[in-house]
Structure formats: structure tokens, C-alpha cells
């Protein structure tokens, strides 16, 4: 492992294999939470599911204790954008949209991912917003892969791909002040990955980089405010938000989406490294 520009941690292929193991733990936790989401379930119950999956895998929750954070997941409902603390008092209701953000440490390496899930019957426009966020995330990952393989890519090519996808889909707000990040032996590392911006700027995209790509978009204004608990970020205008995330790594022969069960192959095809075998797999 070595450092490159802006203190970016470049991983060896063997270290990325370890990150893949951590990523699969996160994927399993998210899958079990997704299956449990329904009206009447509390966010504390979802938190317990995630912690159980992570610890049974021999891993440790990344979030719990991070700068004093008290839980295993962030469970952000409706106008809550990110970092909402699970609670036994927060009961999911029909029509809610909930973002579940989860991280795990296995053998010293981190995985980090998030999904946005509808609760019961959800208004189509809200489900469409969540779909747009996911499309934007995958567009950013694809841009990273193409940029690395061409040897011409720069960090903000990811940002531009995310923004362009969102803007093309509708008048959604793109949350500023929060974004993706490097990941490895720490959950948050250089570089910060904006979800908006002009292409062709920042450090080159090279093999060994591992990044978490995480768009956050809203049905209204992108402006946010942090609540008095010091964690929960909500939209200032009360509009519903969506947040999705995958951790991915760049290798010499392509990208590996470390927190996707199939490594990203269903969405990215041949951009995925040969280290992820071509096979039929559950798609997150």
C-alpha cells in the first residue's frame, strides 16, 4: 500500500480482495434490512438486524462509536437526508422512503454502502427519485472505470457524471456539503468526491484507488440543516430525499464494486474486473 497525491491511499490487489470481503458483509446486512422494511417496523429493529449480520460475519460495525455515533446504521426517513440515528420511537409508515446506510470493518478494512427503500405502497414520483439517485451513482462508477482504463480520467469526471445524470432526469435538488470519499483502512479518507462539478479536474483516476460514491438528491431544494442531535441532516424545505452508496475499487483491468453482490457486473458489464467472475448473481 502506498500514498498518492492528496494523501490518497492506493491499495494492492490483495488488499482490495480484503475490502471485497468487508463489502460483502455490508451487502448482506443491507439485503436483510431491505427484506425487513415494512410498515410498523422501527428503525431500531433494522439497526439490530444489521449489527447481528455484521458481528456474525466476524466483522465490526464501522459507524458504532465513530466520533460518538451510537448505532450501527444511519436510518434516514423522508426529509432526513443522511446520518439519522435509529430509534425505537421511529416507526416506519406506509408510503415512507428510508435510506439505510451501513458500514463494516473486517480484518482492518472497511466497506460502506447505502440503499433507499420504499415502505409499502410509495408514491411513484418518490420511487422515481430513488431510481435516479441509483442511476447517478452507477454513472459515476462507470465514469471512474472508463477514466482509469483510458489513463485520462480525473476525479471530477465522477462528479460530472453524477450531476449530469440527475439533471437529465428532472428538477431534483443535489445536496451540497456531503458526498463520497476515499475508503480503506479508515472509513473516510481522501479524496472527497463531490456529486456535482466540471469534469477533468482533481487527481488522476488510477488503479489502487478505492472510493465510496454516494449521491444524495431531493424532491425540492438541495439546502439542508443539521438537527440538534449533531447528526441528523434534513432538507430545509421538508422535501423527501434519497441517498444511495457503493464502495468501489479500481484495478488495472476494470472496476470492482465491492459492496454489490455481483461486483457490479449487471450494471457495468465488461467494465468490471475479471476478478469478479461473470455469473448470475443477486443484484442489489
Q: Strand percentage, roughly? A: 25-35%
How are helices and strands ordered from N to C? EEHHEEEEEHHEEEEEEEEEEH
Q: What's the total count of β strands?
A: 17
Output the number of helix runs: 5
Quickly give the structural class. alpha+beta
Uncertain runs are: 280-284
Shape: globular
Strand order of the largest sheet: 10-9-11-16-17
- Distance between the amino and carboxyl termini: 30 Å
Explain what you see:
- With 284 residues, this protein is an alpha+beta fold.
- It is 30% helix and 25% strand.
- The protein has 5 helices and 17 strands.
- It has helices at residues 13-36, 43-56, 124-150, 155-169, 265-268; strands at 2-4, 8-10, 60-61, 73-77, 80-82, 97-106, 109-118, 173-174, 180-182, 189-193, 210-213, 216-218, 224-226, 233-235, 241-243, 246-251, 254-257.
- The protein has a 5-stranded antiparallel sheet, sandwiched between helices.
- The longest helix has 27 residues, at 124-150.
- 55% of the residues are buried.
Amino acid at each position: 500500500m502506498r500514498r498518492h497525491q492528496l494523501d490518497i491511499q492506493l491499495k494492492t490487489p490483495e488488499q482490495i480482495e480484503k475490502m471485497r470481503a468487508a463489502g460483502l458483509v455490508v451487502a448482506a446486512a443491507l439485503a436483510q434490512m431491505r427484506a425487513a422494511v415494512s410498515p410498523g417496523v422501527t428503525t431500531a429493529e433494522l439497526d439490530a438486524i444489521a449489527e447481528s449480520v455484521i458481528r456474525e460475519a466476524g466483522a465490526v460495525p464501522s459507524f458504532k462509536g465513530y466520533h460518538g455515533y451510537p448505532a450501527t446504521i444511519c436510518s434516514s426517513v423522508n426529509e432526513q437526508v443522511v446520518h439519522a440515528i435509529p430509534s425505537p420511537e421511529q416507526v416506519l409508515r406506509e408510503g415512507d422512503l428510508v435510506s439505510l446506510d451501513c458500514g463494516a470493518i473486517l480484518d482492518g478494512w472497511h466497506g460502506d454502502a447505502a440503499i433507499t427503500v420504499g415502505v409499502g405502497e410509495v408514491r411513484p414520483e418518490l420511487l422515481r427519485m430513488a431510481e435516479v439517485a441509483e442511476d447517478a451513482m452507477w454513472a459515476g462508477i462507470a465514469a471512474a472505470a472508463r477514466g482509469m482504463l483510458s489513463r485520462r480520467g480525473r476525479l471530477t469526471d465522477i462528479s460530472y457524471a453524477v450531476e449530469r445524470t440527475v439533471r437529465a432526469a428532472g428538477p431534483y435538488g443535489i445536496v451540497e456539503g456531503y458526498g463520497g470519499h476515499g475508503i480503506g483502512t479508515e472509513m473516510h479518507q481522501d479524496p472527497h468526491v463531490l456529486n456535482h462539478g466540471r469534469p477533468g479536474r482533481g487527481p488522476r483516476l488510477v488503479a489502487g484507488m478505492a472510493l465510496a460514491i454516494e449521491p444524495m438528491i431531493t424532491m425540492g431544494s438541495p439546502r439542508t440543516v443539521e438537527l440538534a442531535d449533531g447528526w441528523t441532516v434534513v432538507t430545509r424545505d421538508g422535501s423527501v430525499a434519497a441517498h444511495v452508496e457503493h464502495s468501489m475499487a479500481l484495478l488495472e483491468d476494470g472496476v470492482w464494486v465491492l459492496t454489490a453482490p455481483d461486483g457490479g457486473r449487471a450494471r457495468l458489464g465488461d467494465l468490471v474486473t475479471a476478478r469478479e467472475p461473470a455469473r448470475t448473481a443477486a443484484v442489489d
